[in-house]
Amino acid sequence: MGATSGITLQQLRYFVEVAAEGSISAAADLLYVSQPTMSGAIKDLEQRVGCTLLIRSARGVSLTVDGTEFLGYARQVVEQAGLLEQRYFGGQPSRRMLAVSTQHYSFVVEAFVRMVRGADAAEYAFALRETRTWDIIEDVRTFRSELGVLYRNDFNHKVIDKLLRDSGLGFTPLFLATPHIFIARSNPLADRERVTLDDLDGLPRLTFDQGANNSFYFAEEILSTRSSAQDIRVSDRATIFNLMIGLGGYTISTGIISDDFDPSIVAVPLDVDERIEVGWIGQSGIPLTEQALRFVAEMRDVVSGYGVETLS
Predict the structure, then answer these.
(1) Is the pLDDT of residue 114 over 50?
(2) CB neighbours of 202 closer than 8 A, spacing ≥ 6?
(3) Of 11, 103, 104, which Cα lies nearest the Cα of 53?
(4) pLDDT band at 90 (very low <50, low <70, confident <90, very high)
(5) Top-level CATH class of 1-93?
(6) Domain residues of the chain, as ranges?
(7) Which pTM was predicted?
(8) Cβ neighbourhood burial of 189 (10 Å; 0-12, 13-18, 19+)
(9) Which of 239, 119, 265 shows the shortest CA–CA distance to 187?
(10) Record's InterPro entries (predicted)?
(11) What is the greatest pairwise CA distance in the chain?
């Protein structure tokens, strides 16, 4: 990159919004400036840093490799400037921004709800994406999301860790969980203290579809290589819970489930010698923004509330 002399905070704010919206015109509308003004500011920013930050097309804009790296630092500067103005110059709380990509965990939704409710801002732009494992890593790698939430265990950790290293990402453990099955309260197994794998024979196994990257290593459920006579893949939590109720199916997860969000589903311990390590991923060497740190703190608080010890 070239010299950064003359870069303004306004240009950085414009750039962060454009990257978040994927469109110069949409970002201009959000910030109440004209599209030519926004476009000119971004072009001037690229000239000052000495590289192309955005790829323009008829469908909008996307980040270049340099733009992806630049965005991480720009977010930090914009957020810190907002906190400075609020603390020392009596400014209004700045517009809060955070995007999170995650596997399908109700505790993440609960933490996200708490974060949004606690946001001290009149304006905010938050995003929560429940998506596939590969896409979580891609979202964080390309700065579409600041952090992601996923699990690893003895089976998948070498593959996941290598992919994270190759993507410039790091994994921070959040908690260790013993495997449970999620089933409907009406399921005959719902009153059992524990269930075995043999108990699950004959029940439909419900798993989250991983799309083109449907490797066993990217499965959201442990024991993904175990054969099942009845397999159903789904794409969202609402569907998987409906199939638990309608078909008596099950899925394997952490055992942390919210009665407020999922009142018809229960978790029953699964008698296997496995552990699930859930954590968050982020860009290596780039500190989380204050908003992301608040979200991580909320996740720890939610998990602790279910009696699960968090990891430092």
Answers:
(1) yes
(2) 229, 230
(3) 11
(4) low
(5) mainly alpha
(6) 1-93, 176-277
(7) 0.76
(8) middle
(9) 265
(10) LysR_HTH_N (IPR000847), LysR_subst-bd (IPR005119), WH-like_DNA-bd_sf (IPR036388), WH_DNA-bd_sf (IPR036390)
(11) 68
Residues 111 and 147: their CA atoms lie apart, in Å, by 14
Return d(Cα 68, Cα 54) in angstroms, integer: 9
Of 73, 155, 116, 110, nearest to 300 by C-alpha is: 110
> Tens of pLDDT along 116-150?
998 876 677 788 999 999 999 998 987 788 999 99
CB atoms within 10 A of CB 17: 23
Closest CA to 71 of 17, 121, 26, 24: 17
CA-closest candidate to residue 228, choices 253, 242, 254, 207: 207
Cα–Cα distance, 24 to 45 (Å, whole number): 14
Q: Which of 227, 225, 232, 226 is nearest to 246 (CA)?
A: 232
Name the CATH topology of 176-277: D-Maltodextrin-Binding Protein; domain 2 (3.40.190)
| 3-state SS, residue 231 | strand
Closest to 112 (Cα-Cα) out of 72, 149, 164: 149
- What the block records as the tokens of 4 is 């950064």
Residue the block writes with tokens 């309608």: 246
Own/partner long-range contacts of 156-161 (Cβ < 8 Å, ≥24 apart): 156/216, 156/217, 156/218, 156/219, 157/277, 159/215, 159/217, 160/217
The C-alpha angle 139, 145, 148, rounded to 5 degrees, equals 80
